[in-house]
Design brief:
single chain, about 550 residues, alpha/beta, seven-stranded mixed beta sheet, 14 helices
C-alpha cells in the first residue's frame, strides 16, 4: 500500500507498523479517539490533542471516536458533555462515534472478575492513606498489602459484596496484582475499583463501585478497536500499566498502542480544568465562557477564529520534548487571520470633539471595507463636519516627533479631509474639550485634486451626529507572569484582566451582525455584541504584534 509521507514521529510510527503488516487483520483501519472527562469545559490545551488525532484520522482515512471518560460521577455532568460536543463542532471537526466509558460498566465489571479468577486482582482493606504509605519510593520498593494473598473465592465474594453496596466508601478497593517491587510505581498494585455511593448522571444509582481511569481507559480503547491511544506526555509512565491491563483482560492482537506527545504549555495562560473551575466557582470570571478564559467556549465568546487556533497548533508542531510557547505566537495567528478576514471600522475609545468651522452640510464618504480583500469593496460613512477623535491624537504641547494634531498643524481624517487646528476650547479645569479646525475641500480622499496642504498623519474619527455610544471591553492575561509548576496560581492572578470604558463607534458597527469581528483602526480587533440593548465591543486581540517582530 502507498503510505502518506510522515510529518512527525507519531505518523512515522504508524507508517512503520503499517509496513510491517500489524493491522492487516483489521484491514489496515487506523482508529483513534479523543477521551475527555466531562468534568469541565475543553480548553486550548485540548486543541492540540484534537488536531493530532483528527489529522491521523484524515491522513490514514481512519476513524475517530469521541469518548466521555465518565468514571468519576461526583464531578461529571451533562452540561460538560454538551459543552465538549459544541466545542468540537465549533472547531470544525466531525467524529465518527460518540461513546461513554459508562457504556462499558457491565463489561468492565466482568473483566474485573476475570482478573480475580486469573489471580490478577485482589480486594484490599487498606485505606487510601495506608496504600500510599506502603507504595514505596522511586528508590525503595513498596510493601505488600496484608490482604494480597486472599483466595480467589474470598476476593470474588468480597468484590461482589462491594458491588451490592455492603460496604461504605473507602472500606475496600480492588487492586491489580502486579509487582510491589517494580521500578515503575504505577505498577505497584494500583487500585482499579473503588467504592463510591454517588449517583451517576447517566447510570443513576445502579452502581456504587466505579472503575479507575488507568483501568477503564485502556479497556475502553480495546473494546472500541482503537489502534493508537495518542495522549500527552504525563501518561508515559502509565504506558506499562496500560499494556498490562489490556493484555490481562484477554484482548487479542493487535492491541491498542499508547503514544505520548508533549502537551501544550503557553506563557501567561492557565490550563488546568481544576483551577479553571475554581475561577468559575469563586466568580473571578463570569463563567466558563468568559472571554478571558482559555476554554474553547471562552475563546469563541472572545471572537477568536477556530481557523487561527488550528493554524497555531500546526505552527507549534508535534514533539516529544517539554516546551513552553509564548502567548504572543497565539496572538500573531489570530491577528494574521483577522487581518485578512475582518472588515475595517472606526471607533474612538477616549473621545475629543473636533469641529470644522468652515464645513457646511453633510455627505457620504467612501470607506474601504478591507484592503487585504480585493473583493470586499467599499461602503459609505456619514460625515457632518463635527466628529470625535482620540484624545491622544491631539496635544497642546506635543512631545518630540509627534505626528498627530496640535495647534497650527494638520492631520488627515481617515477617508475624509485634511484639517488644520486653529484654536481650542478649554473647560473649567483648563483641559481641552473641543478642537476647532479648518478643512481643505481639495484634500478629499480619493478625489485626486491638486492639494498643496500636507498632513503629518492619519487619524480615525467618529461622526458626532451619527456616532453611537459603545462600551469597550479590553482583556489582559489572567496570569500576571509566565507559568511555573512550583508557583501558586492564586498569587499570580491578574486582578486587572478586564478593563471597561465607554466611547464612540460609527453606526455601521452598531447595525452589523452579532459577533461580527472588526479591525478598529489603530485600536485593535474587536467583536460586536449586545447585552440588554447595550452595544459592546469586546477585544479579540491587540494590533501590536510582538511575536513576528
Amino acid at each position: 500500500m502507498q503510505l502518506p509521507e510522515a510529518t512527525n514521529f507519531i505518523e512515522q510510527i504508524i507508517n512503520e507498523e503499517l509496513e510491517a503488516g500489524k493491522f492487516e487483520g483489521v484491514n489496515n483501519q487506523i482508529c483513534v479517539r479523543f477521551p475527555p472527562e466531562p468534568n469541565g469545559y475543553l480548553h486550548i490545551g485540548h486543541v492540540k490533542a484534537l488536531c493530532i488525532n483528527f489529522a491521523v484520522k484524515e491522513k490514514y482515512n481512519g476513524k475517530i471516536n469521541l469518548r466521555m471518560d465518565d468514571t468519576n460521577p461526583a464531578k461529571e455532568d451533562y452540561e460538560y458533555v454538551n459543552s465538549i460536543v459544541e466545542a468540537i463542532k465549533w472547531l470544525g471537526f466531525e467524529y465518527d462515534n460518540l461513546f461513554f466509558a459508562s457504556d462499558y460498566y457491565d463489561k468492565l465489571y466482568e473483566i474485573a472478575e476475570k482478573y480475580i479468577l486469573d489471580g490478577n486482582a485482589y480486594v484490599c482493606d487498606l485505606t487510601a492513606e495506608e496504600i500510599t504509605a506502603t507504595r514505596g519510593t522511586l528508590t525503595e520498593p513498596g510493601t505488600e498489602s496484608p490482604y494480597r494473598n486472599r483466595s480467589v473465592e474470598e476476593n470474588l465474594q468480597l468484590f461482589r459484596e462491594m458491588k451490592a453496596g455492603k460496604y461504605p466508601d473507602g472500606a475496600k478497593v480492588l487492586r491489580a496484582k502486579i509487582d510491589m517491587a517494580s521500578p515503575n510505581i504505577n505498577m505497584r498494585d494500583p487500585v482499579i475499583y473503588r467504592i463510591a455511593h454517588v449517583e451517576h448522571y447517566r447510570t443513576g444509582n445502579k452502581w456504587c463501585i466505579y472503575p479507575m481511569y488507568d483501568y477503564a481507559h485502556p479497556i475502553s480503547d480495546a473494546l472500541e478497536g482503537i489502534t493508537h491511544s495518542l495522549c500527552s506526555l504525563e501518561f508515559e509512565n502509565h504506558r506499562p500499566l496500560y499494556d498490562w491491563v489490556v493484555e490481562k483482560a484477554g484482548f487479542k492482537l493487535p492491541r491498542p498502542r499508547q503514544i505520548e506527545f508533549a502537551r501544550l504549555n503557553i506563557t501567561n495562560m492557565l490550563m488546568s480544568k481544576r483551577y479553571l473551575k475554581k475561577l468559575v466557582d469563586e466568580k473571578f470570571v463570569r463563567g466558563w465562557d468568559d472571554p478571558r478564559m482559555p476554554t474553547l467556549a471562552g475563546l469563541k465568546s472572545r471572537g477568536v477564529p477556530p481557523q487561527a487556533l488550528k493554524k497555531f497548533i500546526s505552527d507549534v508542531g508535534v514533539a516529544k520534548g517539554y516546551s513552553v510557547v509564548n502567548i504572543a505566537q497565539l496572538d500573531a495567528c489570530i491577528r494574521d487571520y483577522l487581518n485578512e478576514h475582518a472588515e475595517r471600522a472606526m471607533a474612538v475609545v477616549n473621545p475629543l470633539k473636533l469641529t470644522i468651522t468652515n464645513y457646511q452640510g453633510e455627505e457620504d464618504l467612501l470607506f474601504e471595507k478591507n484592503p487585504m480583500d480585493a473583493e470586499a469593496g467599499n461602503r459609505t460613512v456619514k460625515f457632518s463636519g463635527s466628529v470625535y477623535i482620540e484624545r491622544d491624537d491631539f496635544a497642546l504641547v506635543p512631545p518630540p516627533k509627534y505626528k498627530r494634531l496640535t495647534k497650527g498643524s494638520t492631520v488627515r481624517l481617515k477617508a475624509a479631509y485634511i484639517v488644520r487646528c486653529d484654536d481650542v476650547v478649554l473647560d473649567e479645569n483648563g483641559e481641552v474639550c473641543e478642537v476647532l479646525c479648518t478643512y481643505f475641500p481639495e484634500s478629499k480622499s480619493g478625489s485626486n485634486l491638486p492639494c498643496e496642504v500636507k498632513a503629518k498623519g492619519v487619524v480615525q474619527w467618529v461622526d458626532a451626529k451619527y456616532g453611537k455610544d459603545v462600551e469597550f471591553r479590553r482583556y489582559a492575561p489572567l496570569l500576571n507572569d509566565e507559568q511555573y509548576p512550583d508557583q501558586d496560581y492564586a498569587e499570580r492572578l491578574n486582578k486587572n484582566s478586564e478593563t471597561v470604558c465607554v466611547g464612540k463607534v460609527e453606526p455601521y458597527v452598531a447595525e452589523s451582525a452579532e459577533d461580527m469581528p472588526f479591525q478598529l483602526m489603530r485600536t485593535g480587533y474587536y467583536k460586536k455584541c449586545t447585552q440588554s440593548e447595550k452595544l459592546i465591543l469586546s477585544e479579540i486581540v491587540s494590533l501590536k504584534d510582538s511575536f513576528n517582530k
